[in-house]
Amino acid sequence: MLIHSALLALGATLAAAVQPLEVQGEYFINPKTGNRFQIVGVAYQPGGSAGYNEENGRDPLSDADICMRDAALLQILGVNTIRVYNVNPDVNHDECVSIFNAAGMYIILDVNSPLVGDSLTSFNPWESYYAAYLNRTFAVVEAFKDYPNTLAFFSGNEVINDEQSGADVPPYMRAVTRDLKNYVKKHASRPIPVGYSAADVRDILFDSYNYFQCSLEGDKDDMSKGDLFALNSYSWCGESSFEEASYDDLVSGFEGTSVPIFFSEFGCNDVSPRIFTEVGTIYGSQMTGVFSGGVVYEYTQEKNNYGLVSMNEDGSAKLMPDFRNLEKQYSKLDFATIQGQKPPSESNTKPPVCSTKLITTDNFNNNFTLPVPPPGAQKIIDDGVKPAPKGKLVEISDWKVKFTVKDTDGSTITNLEVKPLTDDEINSPGSNTGSGSSSGSTDGTTSGGTDSGDDENAAPGLAARILPAVAMGSLALLANVAF
Ligand SMILES: *[C@@H]1O[C@H](CO)[C@@H](O)[C@H](O)[C@H]1NC(C)=O
Ligand SMILES: *[C@@H]1O[C@H](CO)[C@@H](O)[C@H](O)[C@H]1NC(C)=O
Questions:
Q1: Is residue 209 part of a domain?
Q2: Which structural domain, as residue segments, surrounds residue 33?
Q3: Has residue 186 been placed in a domain?
Q4: What is the dihedral of CA 272, 277, 283, 286, to 10 degrees?
Q5: What does pLDDT average to in each consecutive run of 10 residues of the chain (483 residues)?
Q6: Which protein residue's CA is at the shortest distance from atom 13 of ligand 2?
Q7: Which of 235, 315, 173, 273 is nearest to 475 (CA)?
Q8: Calculated CA dihedral for residues 59, 61, 62, 65, nearest 10 degrees
Q9: Would the CB of 405 count as within 6 Å of ligand 1?
Q10: Residue 16 pLDDT
Q11: Is the CB of 369 inside a 6 Å radius of any atom of ligand 2?
Q12: Is the CB of 384 under 6 A from ligand 1?
C-alpha cells in the first residue's frame, strides 16, 4: 500500500528510494542532507562464490523471495549497505534491488566473478586484461548504474596479496579502474565511484593504497585514480582494542586520505561466536574522522563459519548467535549522531602526485605508466556494451517473508516482513524490530519449500567455499586469485 502512495511520484520511481550518495573528497556524502555517510554493511553472497554459476540464471540478487527474507533480517540488524561479490549482469535484478532499496540499503558491487576470464588475475595479469573481460565488468555497470542505491563498484578484490602480485598487478589494476571510470563517465547518469578492495596485508597495504589514490598529474579528476579505497581486515579478534588490533596504525596510515576509506570486510572469527566489540570503535571518534564504516563478513553461514544466518535449501533460515551479538553492538550506537556528521568545511583532500617515492616496499611496482586499453576495449567504452542489460526499480506489492525464520533459541520469528522506508530514508537499527506488523497477518511465517524447483545446479548453502581471503589474526593471507 505504501508503494501505491509513492507510485509515479517522479514518473519513474516506483518504490520510495534512498538518496544516491556522492563521493566528496575523502567522504561519502548524502547530497540532500550534506551529511557524511557511514557504511554499516554486511557481505551478502548466499551460496558463496562456489554457488555462483553463469548458466543457472541466478545470482544473489535474482530471487525476490530470498531477497525479501534477507532484507527483512538485515533491516532488523540495522544495516544500510550490502556488498555483493558475484553477479551475473544478464539476469534480472529489479525486484531484489527494489526490495533492498525500499529497505533503505545501498549495494556495493564487485564487477568480477570467480569464473575464468571474469577477473584480473594475480599471476600474469596481462594475460587476463582483454576486451571480453572488460566487457563483462562494463555489463555489471550497465546492469546497476540506473538504481539509486548502487553505492560503488569494486574494480578488484585482493588481486594484490603478496610481493609477486605487488610487482605485477598494480598498473593493470589501475588500468581496469580507469576503464571502468571512463565507462561510468560516458554511460551513467551520475558519477558512481569505482575503487579497489585490498587484502589487509600490512606490509603492502599502504603501497597499494598510494598506488591507487595518487594522481598522475596531481589533479582530482585523474581517470585512473581510485575513487575510494577499501580493505578486508581481520586484525580485531574477540575482546581487543584500537591499539591491540592495530587499528591505530590504519588510522595514522590513512590520515589525510584523498578518498573514502572503509572496511570492505571485517569480523575475525578466532573467537566464535563473535562478539563484534570492534563495532563501537569503528563508528567511534577514533576512527570516523578517517574511516567511513565497514562491512561485516558475512551474511550466510558457510563452512568457513563467518555467518550471521544459517540457510536451508527450502528457504527457511535460522539466526546464528553472531547475528544477535552484532545487533547488540549496533544498538549501543547512536546512529542519528553517527550519520549526522558534517564534513569539515575546509577539507584538504588533494591527492599526492604519483611518484616512485610513494612506494616503500622494494618489489612493489612503482611505475605509473599504465597499459593502454586492450584491442577492442575502447570501442566498447565509446559505444557501450551491446546488448546492455538495464535495471530499473519496480513495484513490489507484498513485503511479507515467505519462509520460516527461527531465532537463535529455535523459536519462530512471526510476521517477518520488510518495512519499506519513506523516500530518502536510510536503514538504521530499530526500523524493523522483527515482531508483528500492523497488518496483523500471520502469513509471513508460512513455511517455505517453494524455492527448490530450480535448485539442481545450485551449490547448497553449505557448499564448500574457501574464503576469498581472510587475513587470519596474524594478517597472513589465504589468497584466492579468482575472487
Ligand atoms: C558484452 O556483454 C554483454 C552483456 O553481458 C553480452 O551480451 C555480450 O555478448 C558481450 N560482448 C562481448 C564482445 O563479449
Ligand atoms: C614503465 O612501464 C612502461 C610500460 O610497461 C615501460 O615502457 C617503461 O620502461 C617502464 N619504466 C621503467 C622506469 O621501468
A1: yes
A2: 12-466
A3: yes
A4: -130
A5: 41 70 96 97 88 85 97 98 97 98 98 94 97 98 98 98 95 98 98 98 96 90 96 98 98 96 98 98 98 98 96 96 98 95 84 96 97 98 98 96 98 96 92 64 34 31 28 30 30
A6: 367
A7: 235
A8: 120
A9: no
A10: 78
A11: yes
A12: no
Q: Is 450 in the pocket of ligand 2 (CB under 6 A)?
A: no
CATH number, residue 288: 3.20.20.80
**Residues linked to residue 42 through DSSP beta bridges, in sequence order:** 82, 296
Residue 129 inside a domain? The answer is: yes
Of 85, 166, 179, 463, the C-alpha closest to 311 is 463
Q: Is residue 482 part of a domain?
A: no
Among 213, 207, 171, smallest CA distance to 370 is for 171
Indicate which residues carry an active-site annotation: 158, 265
Q: Please state the domain count of the chain.
A: 1
Rounded to the nearest whole angstrom, what is the distance from the C-alpha of residue 369 to the centroid of ligand 2? 6
Distance 139 CA to ligand 1 centre (A): 7
Rounded Cα–Cα distance for residues 245 and 369 (Å):
36
Give CA separation, 260 vs 33, 263, 421, in Å.
18, 10, 26
Q: Where are the beta strands (DSSP E) in 21-139?
A: 22-24, 27-29, 39-43, 81-84, 106-110
The edge-to-edge listing of strands for the beta sheet with 309-311 is: 309-311, 317-319, 405-406
Which pTM does this prediction carry? 0.89
